Structures
1.
Amino acid sequence: MRNVMVVDSHTAGEPTRVVLEGGPDLGSGSLPERLNVFRERFDWFRSAVVNEPRGSDVLVGALLCAPVDPACSAGVIFFNNVSYLGMCGHGTIGLIATLAHLGHIQPGRHLIETPVGIVTTELHEDGRVTVHNIPSYRYASQVHLLIEGHGSVTGDIAWGGNWFFLVEDHKQELSLERVEQLTDFAWRIRQALERNGITGANDALIDHIELFAPGSPGSHSRNFVLCPGKAYDRSPCGTGTSAKLACLAESAKLAPGEVWIQESILGSRFEASYHREGDAIYPHITGEAFVTMEARLIMNERDPFWKGIGH
Ligand code: PYC
């Protein structure tokens, strides 16, 4: 029997489950090394925490780790229903809100180590959190794709801590009522990318698809983001918004310091901007998370589904 202490939160509607105690021993290597150990030896733990019957496809897990760099307040490895995430914007906001809820941190700046680099976070007095993300960039623009049952679309490939294909010319209405059709459409885009061998840098799989449309008053844009395991992001997606900022910056459509309000398919919002250092674009994403539950997960080896359904 294994007990795992977790705190759940949601950021703009998208849930995060922070694992505080009871996680696997990943050793004391760098965060990328520990991620490899997690993936190779403890993938069952990922599934047990986020998949049914304890979780659901939409849940993002965040394994709290001791940081290597003593300047960091914490290390974290994010994971989902099928795999692992380099970085996670909504998850980092959820992590900071969770650490504040537990009284582990106070308003101010906190460095967080992730497998793709250190991010600076800022917990504001009013509870909002700003994530100063890792450098983001557009890798390719105006990539043409033929989508089964639809015709062609054009999109950009960008990195914001995960790999995204960003599409504006999709002719889809982005509304919550159409989530099933949007999921099906975005999944066909993902399949077309794979079929055509289109990847991010170093042959990286592009596993997030992002569709854009004009936003409601007070926002600049609405998005629909399909995550790697086919769940859609309820939030505007922190890494997806970072990828969008990189594209806007490259096209000279948004100046450094200018505010971009990104709305999700639910209508929830992130406030975003960026600064440049040489060629690098550094995104800043602000949002708010609310703690929803403190819990102890019970993993009983007699339970046929103790590792999560599908594992
Ligand atoms: O906020 O970066 C994000 C994110 C990635 C996947 C789900 N949310």
2.
Amino acid sequence: MLNIVIFGAPGSGKGTQSARIVEKYGLNHISTGDVLRAEIKNGTELGKTAKGYIDNGQLIPDALMIDILASVFDSFKDSKGVIFDGFPRTIAQADALKAMLKERGQEVSVMLDLEVPEDELMTRLIKRGQECGRADDNEETIKKRLVVYHSQTAPLIDWYKKDGKYCHINGLGTMEGIFADICTAIDKL
Ligand code: ATP
């Protein structure tokens, strides 16, 4: 199986590029943000818990996310592969993902880090907030999410470098150009 982690700050384009990867390579998309938004929409207990964290720009606790991830991943077993979008976001989640895949005789194939400058992230997220009405895409929450990204999520860059899975992608440019760079990285696998 291909197990691709797509990584980057909020607004780096993980969701957009994941959709293209899914279409071209026939992979399954696991977006933890989408899973949580669906729970919120359906008014489940999990959704109620998640909403409090998301609206405040915070991460959902690791133990909860790790359980969710394992059950979603198992629903795709024996498929061509999976793209992890929005997971892992902490070192504990990266450790858990590695252990979970190992138990299933799998490993992460590559971690694609979409790098985008901070001012561009702000512009994109504010625009998305205005267009899609996503409650967490307002200036105050975006700033909190970026702080959380730098403190809790960015350390994963070194974690994946040490694990030998890191691949840098320039996340600035046309969507086609960025996707072409992603395909070059995937085709090497
Ligand atoms: P994109 O690059 O697609 O714009 P994003 O970072 O803006 O991504 P999502 O990935 O959709 O947004 O995540 C939205 C929110 O859901 C996060 O701010 C966080 O509160 C919660 N969340 C999603 N994934 C996780 C996770 N793995 N661990 C903890 N919380 C998570």
